[in-house]
Design brief:
857 residues; alpha/beta; seven-stranded mixed sheet; six-stranded mixed sheet; 30 helices
């Protein structure tokens, strides 16, 4: 316990898994916490003192089962192993922390999600700007950036780190921005110094400066990245050669998507638990690294026309050349995660079976080079030239390792025959030696005539000869008796002892030699880490492009034309997610959209609730973003002028934890849009102002449209969906504002949604019909209709202000005094009727009965 307390004092914030024999034990508060998270038994032990201490543990071989549960619950876990072989030590075995696993730092496959990056984020807060760094230890990806708090927030929402570290004296700033949404850890102030960070990065990358990485000027980013490297040291992650580069997240290279837009458009994550994000429609990737890259492409659409066209050319090549696509798919299918295996090799934590998977994956590189190199596509030919088949490594792994390998390097039977003479010799002794024992058994049976003689083994006195009591008088004099049983005697001989030493010695030596040879192979493989990482990067890009082509063919997408212009021209566009969720037989109604900065900058879309206004807004943004990701799009034709920012104000929810109402959230998000407009932005606004009174709402919405139209610098292309029909008036005063409506048909007092966009405004919201469709009680719907008809009468007149006072009183409030007794009888009859359950025939009969009462019959 003294040893435990000393190690725990070094890692007070971590749960300590303390190796004792065949178990990992937790003590005290750690044990209480572990027992709840892992659902294991909590016991108490005196441990040599008067006071009891809580205890909870599990077998060491179950670490991979229990560790992920602890980490996913947000715990930092320090794994404390025995650093010496207990057989060779007298007294207490030396122990030490061999790994500190945190939610953001792990190489454990059971903790990691194959399709997601596992980022650790580090934020360096400052008065004017802020620095941020992202590291995925499992892939070696290391990035930095700088920006204001909104930008930092946007990156955090896009990358979704598993853990965030920051300076402890900036706790208030952090909590104000993120609350308790993330797993966090605080570091000392000095760790976030620029000089400290610069020196850390220089030392790690072995460079004179950081100019080659393009981050030299990013002082706060460097400070954040330096803190990451310090945190790796603190958590015992010392083998990190696979972190071979650091890059800058360039704001000029990607489309600006604020955190609201990423959430509203559901690009990579659904807004609701049962929602379907866009990525689930486009993701047909075959490899884990491809799936991770696709997620990055989703939240970082491009602004560079050349790169977008390259991607579109590659997708088109796959679509036009089915053999090329099929051959590539065949090689990618089932390929293991070589990106994460490269990291494990660098960290010297790769197991024999993983090396076998690595070899099989690398064997697929040559066929991929042949397939891509022989295609007509310049993009694929360039990829083929960059791929490295790692021939020497493949040959080494194939010749040195067996075809069937264990998970653990200490289990033996790893190295192929013919690689090491001593190993081959010891194997003969260990395995053939046992055959020789059988030969001794048969020889002695013949010599002595003891037919039941057998040779066996136990740990107490090794190999022995066992003779049943019926034959014990035939035992030769030179045999030495060792044990007497009820029905038999056990003997040893000099010959047996000699062979026993050879066999047992051989088995011990075998394990040691095989382990050392395996470590040499791992060290050799580590020389290829950069080449493997390069292959993983190329393979993941090819995988994403192939995925885009699969989605395009499956869902009938077209190739968009991407221009550096101000036009967005979409013909017969569809919503990529909604169209896949429709019931069988129901087709999505496509719509065309045109926006530019000269003639049709702002589209005001009116129309009934549920007609599809919101879907139309979202589909336009998704088509534009898909085009700028390099994907084909759900439309008959699409010309997209490159957009630099996309803003959405769609839907709203109260942020009660911060004391903000729906309307406050709506206004905050709208203010963010109006303050960050740009020359080539796309603005989507849905039902602005609905969270307040009608007059306030109309006034705000009207003013926003005017502001967007008359902005002195930027003519943001805007789609403005509203139920305020008064906004149709704006088009008469402003030349670049056009009115559209989503059409409906009224049939027998029912509403049929046509979901088709037409020119011109709309005058009716059909809200009461929607209420009826939602299952509102009939009496409420009927009463609402009655009030509506009254309010709509002569609504333009000035006296409208007092209309509410003139609303006809509810019939249920009829005065009892002076009323016709027949009316009271009718009222009683009506009160007994259940409108929701009465059948049409019964209603007619009841109506006739009421008529007769009123006539006095």
């Amino acid at each position: 316990m003294k040893q435990y307390n000393a190690i725990k004092a070094k890692h007070p914030d971590a749960m300590l898994l303390f190796r004792v024999g065949d178990f990992y034990e937790t003590f005290g508060e750690d044990a209480v916490k572990a027992s709840k998270v892992l659902d294991i038994v909590l016991t108490k032990r005196a441990n040599g003192s008067a006071a009891h201490i809580e205890l909870a543990g599990f077998p060491h071989h179950s670490l991979d089962t229990y560790l992920p549960k602890l980490v996913r619950a947000g715990n930092r876990v320090a794994i404390c192993d025995q650093l010496e072989n207990p057989k060779d030590v007298k007294g207490i075995v030396k122990r030490g922390v061999t790994e500190l696993v945190t939610p953001g730092l792990t190489l454990n496959d059971n903790v990691l999600d194959q399709k997601k990056n596992n980022y650790l984020a580090s934020i360096c807060f400052d008065k004017k700007s802020n620095g941020i760094a992202f590291l995925d230890l499992s892939t070696g990806e290391f990035m930095v950036s700088e920006g204001d708090l909104d930008y930092i927030d946007k990156l955090i929402q896009g990358f979704k780190p598993s853990e965030i570290i920051y300076c402890k004296n900036k706790r208030n700033e952090f909590e104000e921005l993120f609350g308790d949404e993330f797993n966090t850890f605080c570091l000392e102030e000095w760790i976030y110094g620029f000089d400290f960070g610069y020196e850390k990065l220089q030392s790690h990358f072995q460079t004179k400066n950081l100019k080659g990485f393009g981050i030299e000027e990013s002082q706060l980013g460097i400070a954040a990245a330096g803190a990451v490297l310090h945190y790796l040291e603190e958590t015992e992650h010392k083998e990190i050669k696979h972190i071979s580069a650091i890059s800058r997240i360039d704001t000029d290279k990607y489309v600006w998507l604020d955190k609201f837009t990423i959430r509203n458009l559901e690009l990579a994550y659904p807004a609701q638990p049962d929602g379907v994000p866009l990525i689930s429609i486009l993701d047909h990737t075959q490899t884990p690294m491809g799936a991770r890259l696709l997620k990055k492409w989703m939240v970082l659409p491009l602004k560079d026309k050349a790169i977008i066209d390259n991607r579109l050319n590659a997708v088109e090549s796959f679509i036009q050349n089915a053999d090329l696509a099929e051959s590539t798919l065949e090689q990618l299918s089932g390929m293991t995660d070589i990106e994460r295996l490269a990291s494990k090799v660098a960290a010297l934590r790769v197991n024999p079976r993983e090396l076998l998977h690595l070899r099989k994956a690398l064997e697929k590189i040559l066929p991929i080079i042949d397939v891509l190199g022989s295609s007509d596509s310049e993009v694929f030919q360039a990829y083929a030239k960059k791929l490295d088949p790692c021939v020497d490594l493949v040959e080494k792994l194939e010749s040195h390792l067996k075809e069937e390998l264990p998970l653990n390097a200490t289990q033996g039977n790893i190295i192929a025959d013919g690689i090491n003479e001593e190993l081959d010799e010891l194997r003969k002794i260990a395995y053939s030696g046992k055959d020789f024992l059988l030969q001794i058994q048969e020889r002695e049976k013949e010599r002595t005539g003891i037919s039941s003689l057998k040779i066996a083994y136990n740990k107490v006195f090794g190999y022995y000869l066992e003779v049943s009591n019926a034959h014990k008088d035939k035992v030769p004099e030179e045999w030495i008796r060792k044990q007497t049983l009820v029905n038999a005697e056990r003997y040893i001989t000099e010959e047996l002892k000699v062979y026993e030493e050879k066999i047992l010695g051989a088995e011990d030596k075998l394990g040691s030699i095989e382990f050392n040879l395996f470590q040499e192979i791992v060290q050799y493989t580590a020389q290829f880490v950069l080449a493997i990482q390069g292959n993983a990067k190329i393979i993941s890009e090819i995988d994403c492009l192939l995925s885009f082509s699969t989605a395009a063919q499956k869902n009938n997408y077209c190739r968009p034309t991407v221009k550096e212009s101000q036009e967005i021209d979409i013909k017969e566009g569809r919503h990529p997610v909604i169209e896949t969720q429709l019931p069988n037989g129901e087709e999505y109604v496509p719509n065309s959209i045109f926006l530019d900065d000269a003639s049709q900058q702002i589209i005001v879309i009116t129309g009934p609730n549920m007609a599809g206004k919101s879907a139309l807004l979202r589909q336009t943004a998704l088509i534009v973003l898909m085009a700028q990701m390099g994907s084909f799009v759900p439309a008959a034709y699409a010309k997209v002028g490159i957009i630099d920012k996309v803003f959405t104000r769609v839907g709203a929810s109260d942020n009660l934890s911060k004391g903000e109402s729906t309307f406050m959230v709506e206004m905050t998000e709208t203010a963010s849009i109006l303050n960050n407009l740009s020359e080539n932005c796309l603005v989507l606004m849905d039902e602005i102002g609905r969270g307040t009174s009608t007059y306030d709402g109309v006034s705000i919405a009207w003013s926003i449209v005017e502001h967007l139209h008359n902005h002195p610098k930027f003519k943001g292309k805007t789609m403005f969906a509203t139920h305020y029909h008064e906004l149709n008036q704006i088009a008469e005063d402003f030349p670049r504002v056009k009115n559209f409506n989503v059409s409906v048909k009224e049939l027998d007092n029912r509403v049929i949604f046509m979901r088709k966009l037409k020119e011109g405004g709309s005058e009716h919201s059909f809200g009461i019909h929607v209420a009826q469709m939602a299952g509102m009680p009939n009496e409420v719907v009927i009463r609402a209709n009655e009030i509506l008809h009254h309010l709509e009468k002569d609504k333009i007149k000035e006296e409208n202000k007092s209309k509410l006072e003139e609303v006809p009183k509810n019939n249920f409030q009829l005065s009892m005094f002076g009323a016709d007794p027949n009316y009271e009888e009718v009222l009683g009859m009506l009160n007994k009727i259940d409108v929701n359950t009465i059948s049409p025939v019964e209603a007619l009969l009841k109506l006739n009965e009421i008529k007769n009462v009123l006539k006095g019959k």
